[in-house]
């Protein structure tokens, strides 16, 4: 990658201007590894390459989920240890999310047993100051000292939790427990010239604790190095092999199982309802296939369609759309072991009919009933998200944006007249 002048340097990375773009920087990750605020330092040849690969793979996943980040490109094969990021002003706060008690949390809370699951996950803030060992700051102090506004800190906290949730999901799929994670944020200028908070800095195997099978003894992260008093060349080689393993595992995070939703409608008249389901799925990036097949009039064809969809490579969730009775969902449900969500298009024309009659069946029906098409789409997406981290992240981001909208609405209705309600 072409680089301009060096603009900054950390313990494990160097930042360069981009020769043409004033809104971008090049980050070059180094082979250094250090612990104890730089008191112990070594070089592991090839570590910078693995760190860039890990960082790029993590950020590609987070971008695909819709999380606002600084990552633009790079970090893969021909890029070596370099990547292109949006230029931003870093906020000098490390935001640590903890799902399980470990590390400095245990020192500060000696009454808590190592490995205790923390619920809700704990978010802590540390001021970046090596000379004073990154002291812990309260939210109030961060705001008082002008390091971030209340609104900025709220967004940083929300996004840090989101990132943890997405990465915990990804690691869980590899049977690895994400214990804790450190992230950082910066202020960038958006297309309209407004300041926005974005996830920045690197996220690599130095940034978290990860325990395969939930077993601390099997740890894969930098803690192995922190625990070594005087590492030999062989010890450093062992550390590197863990970093290689992690870079490879992270490469599978974005892998989708190719899941899709089979929308079966009982009549072509149900198409508008089916279109609403498909549209809501499309907004989450979930593919769908629509078919018209009646349980009453074309049972053989309906069965054949279900068998075809069942036999495709990706995981399938069905949404059935049929008025008058819920027979189609009962039919599809009996024909497949895959999940079925009935989304009957209830309207005034069906008034008085027991359109959910199949719900009264004594046993053997496993389909759920969801009336709003958009909700049926979300329910189907959540099922597929069990083994699709990008989809899981998109659902989380959608929920987060919904929460933000409500909170903004609350501050608007409570704003003094004449103000725009912004904090
Ligand atoms: P602790 O506060 O328990 O030492 O660390 C909490 C989490 O933040 C751990 O996952 C640790 O790896 C990460 N962390 C803490 N300080 C730093 C740092 O200076 N750089 C990086 N990359 N991660 C850190």
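Q: What amino acid sequence fits the structure above?
A:
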């Amino acid at each position: 990658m072409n680089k301009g002048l060096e603009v900054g340097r950390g313990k494990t990375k160097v930042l360069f201007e981009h020769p043409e773009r004033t809104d971008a920087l090049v980050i070059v990750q180094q082979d250094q590894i250090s612990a104890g605020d730089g008191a112990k330092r070594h070089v592991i040849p090839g570590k910078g390459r693995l760190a860039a690969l890990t960082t790029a793979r993590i950020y590609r996943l987070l971008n695909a989920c819709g999380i606002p980040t600084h990552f633009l490109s790079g970090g893969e094969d021909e890029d070596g240890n370099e990547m292109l990021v949006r230029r931003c002003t870093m906020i000098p706060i490390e935001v640590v999310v903890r799902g399980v008690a470990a590390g400095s949390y245990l020192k500060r809370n000696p009454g808590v047993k190592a490995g205790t699951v923390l619920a809700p996950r704990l978010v802590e803030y540390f001021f970046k100051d090596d000379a004073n060992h990154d002291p812990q700051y309260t939210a109030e102090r961060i705001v008082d000292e002008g390091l971030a506004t209340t609104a900025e800190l709220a967004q940083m906290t929300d996004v840090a939790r989101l990132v943890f949730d997405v990465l915990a999901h990804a690691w869980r799929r590899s049977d690895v427990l994400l214990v804790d994670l450190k992230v950082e944020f910066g202020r960038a200028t958006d297309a309209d010239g407004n300041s926005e908070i974005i996830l920045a800095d690197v996220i690599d195997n130095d940034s978290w604790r990860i325990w395969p099978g939930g077993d601390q003894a099997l740890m894969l992260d930098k803690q192995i190095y922190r625990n070594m008093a005087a590492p030999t060349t062989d010890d450093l080689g062992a550390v590197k092999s863990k970093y290689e393993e992690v870079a490879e595992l992270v490469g599978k995070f974005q892998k989708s199982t190719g899941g899709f939703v089979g929308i079966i409608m009982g009549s072509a008249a149900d198409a508008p309802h089916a279109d609403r389901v498909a549209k809501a799925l499309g907004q989450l990036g979930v593919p769908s296939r629509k078919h018209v097949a009646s349980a009453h009039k074309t049972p053989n064809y309906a069965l054949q369609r279900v068998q075809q969809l069942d036999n495709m490579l990706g995981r399938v969730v069905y949404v059935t759309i049929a008025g008058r009775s819920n027979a189609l969902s009962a039919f599809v449900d009996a024909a497949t072991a895959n999940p079925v969500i009935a989304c009957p298009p209830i309207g005034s024309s069906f008034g008085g009919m027991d359109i959910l009659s199949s719900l009264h069946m004594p046993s053997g029906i496993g389909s759920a009933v969801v009336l709003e098409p958009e909700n049926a789409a979300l329910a189907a997406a959540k099922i597929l998200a069990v083994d699709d981290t990008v989809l899981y992240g998109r659902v989380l981001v959608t929920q987060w944006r919904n929460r933000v909208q409500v909170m903004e609405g609350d501050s608007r209705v409570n704003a003094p007249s004449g103000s725009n309600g912004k904090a």
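Q: And what stands out in the fold?
A: Residues 94, 96, 103-105, 180-182, 206-209, 222 surround guanosine-5'-monophosphate (CB under 6 Å).
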